[in-house]
Design brief:
The structure is a single chain. With about 260 residues, the chain is an alpha/beta fold. It has eight helices and twelve strands. It folds into two domains: about 190 residues, Vaccinia Virus protein VP39 (Rossmann fold, 3-Layer(aba) Sandwich); about 70 residues. The strands form two sheets. Strands 3-2-1-4-5-12-11 form a seven-stranded mixed sheet, with helices on both faces. Strand 9 and strand 10 form a beta hairpin. The chain binds S-adenosylmethionine. The site of S-adenosylmethionine (SAM) has 21 residues, from helix 4.
Length: about 260
């Protein structure tokens, strides 16, 4: 089972996810292209607010979204409820841990989008997740995992931070919320420890601060591929959502994994 410390950021502030990380047409196109190649049904792990699932359901695919955060699943249900009835009927959401799940059925495409595989804190959890995925893949199925490439030059002295954002109004309470963040790499750069800090201005004029710590293993491309191979997958890596082969320099690592027979 994954350690769940890192979920606080999503439980309290999941509503800002789509504002901070807007979904792009290229990302939708990449997943839709693969869905057309493999056929459905599709399984999105760590699906968050379900924004990508909803686009794929609109494109005609049956999709199951799995996430561990109650808030993210609530937002996903809300996004699905806005779809036309036929597309809405193609979306199912499940609360489960992506390193320990059994849905009792197979999928032609499984995906973990937008840097979400490394929500899993250890290689052991990652392997457990990959092993669950293998059991859920139908013959001819594929696994897509998209992560951001680790760029050590982004962390001078092993640190990186960003200052207070512009305030964003909470969509339900109307309270203004500011966000800042910091990350520190362990010695050797093998693990990142970070925290998001949120400042909330309440209607009575008071302010509170919430700290949301997180940790993540910092894997290089070759280490991901090794991990996928240990779990029984052959991997191709692309540098972007257009399907350009990776040349070692791109911002993204778009992995396409095929189970070995
Ligand atoms: C970066 S956000 C999701 C982004 C989403 N994949 C997208 O493309 O919009 C990461 C998500 O991972 C979920 N998560 C973290 N650990 C998880 C776990 N062990 N099992 C399932 N979901 C998890 C969080 O609740 C959060 O919704």
């Amino acid at each position: 089972m994954a350690t769940h410390l890192d979920l606080k950021r999503y439980e309290l502030f999941g509503w800002d996810y789509e504002i901070v990380n807007p979904l792009t047409a290229e990302e939708v196109g990449w997943h839709a292209t693969w869905a057309r190649r493999t056929g459905g049904p599709l399984l999105g792990l760590a699906c968050g607010t379900g924004r990508l699932l909803c686009r794929l359901a609109e494109a005609g695919f049956e999709v199951v979204g799995l996430d561990l955060s109650n808030t993210m699943l609530r937002l996903a249900r809300r996004n699905a409820a806005k779809l036309p009835p036929a597309a809405r009927g193609r979306v199912r959401l499940v609360k489960a841990d992506m390193s320990d799940f059994d849905l009792g059925r197979k999928f032609r495409l499984v995906f973990i989008a937008d840097n979400s595989f490394r929500e899993l804190n250890t290689r052991r959890e990652m392997l457990a997740c990959l092993s669950c995925i293998r059991r859920h893949l139908a013959p001819g199925g594929r696994l897509l995992i998209t992560e951001r490439r680790l760029d050590p030059s982004r962390y001078p002295n092993g640190r990186w931070s960003f200052g207070w954002s512009r305030p964003v109004a909470h969509p339900e309470t109307g309270e203004l919320v500011w966000r800042r963040g910091e990350v520190r790499l362990s010695r050797g750069g093998r693990r990142a420890r970070g925290r998001f800090i949120y400042k909330i201005a309440h209607a009575d004029g008071s302010e509170t601060i919430e700290q949301c710590p997180w940790t993540a293993p910092m894997l290089q491309k070759a280490e991901y591929i090794q991990l996928f191979a240990r779990a029984g997958f052959r991997t191709r890596t692309f540098a972007d959502y257009k399907g350009v082969e990776d040349d070692g320099k791109g911002r993204l690592l778009c992995f396409v994994c095929e189970p070995r027979k």
